[in-house]
């Protein structure tokens, strides 16, 4: 077990201890000073800060070269969180998310993606979002390392009340639950040359592959869902240097024919899913 994974496990454990103290403190008086109960939380935050500084130094001194792969979807989409705008794109280097991207479907025809609201409806059904059920394709030939689709697809969290619940209740609970609860149903592909692709928030029961399967570029893997730490159905995609989310580091990507879409920008991918990935750029 490498140091990054050990640090992540310790961080999760400290958060569990802190939350357990908070829960117990609601019913009984703890046998020590109140400020001591915050030490696990401070320790967890400290580990996160040290890890973030280490990852930032690595990027500043020698940024990894991007890997060109095919897009994981077809149709018209737009980016929400993108490494084209900031690195780390999701505000954290944890779980190899440094260069991760989130995309949502924006079809030219048919029902539009619902816009976020302040109050009502508090939540929406997943089928109200055009991304839900969209096919996910292999971005290059490779081997399936991990594939699971047993976690539920929850309702959207696109209202203010839903968003607060998402961050203050679900977000903390899933973080304590570990990486599997954060990314939800997910697929990991070994693309070779030390590069792995992650598809997160996959739809429950949609998998078309199993661990050990060898897939070709453009092969159907599963469908977009709303499992895990997700406010609405969307595709979370990233490349990383290992199959273990808690130990891997992020790798920058470039989608062939698309590049790296910036947040808010739309892009369209044709139906041809056979374009092979080009080798890593120098």
What are the key terms here?
single chain, 282 residues, alpha+beta, 4 helices, disordered C terminus
Main sheet characteristics: 9 strands, antiparallel
Shape: globular
Helical percentage: 10-25%
What's the CATH architecture of the largest domain? Distorted Sandwich
Rg, alpha carbons:
19 Å
How would you state the average pLDDT, rounded? 83
The count of helical stretches stands at 4
CATH domain class name of the largest domain: Mainly Beta
Q: What is the CATH H-level superfamily of the largest domain?
A: Glucose Permease (Domain IIA)
The proportion of strand residues reads: 15-25%
Q: Give the tally of β-strands.
A: 13
**CATH topology assignment of the largest domain:** Glucose Permease (Domain IIA)
Structural class based on helices, strands and sheet pairing: alpha+beta
Uncertain residue ranges: 274-282
Describe this structure in words.
The chain has four helices and 13 strands. By secondary structure, the chain is α+β, with helices and mostly antiparallel strands. The longest helix has 23 residues. It is 24% helix and 20% strand. The protein is globular, with a radius of gyration of 19 Å. The chain has two domains: 59 residues; 203 residues, Glucose Permease (Domain IIA), CATH 2.70.70.10. It starts with a helix and ends in a 13-residue tail after the last strand. Helix 1 packs antiparallel against helix 2. Strands 2, 3, 5, 6, 7, 8, 10, 11 and 13 form a nine-stranded antiparallel sheet that branches.
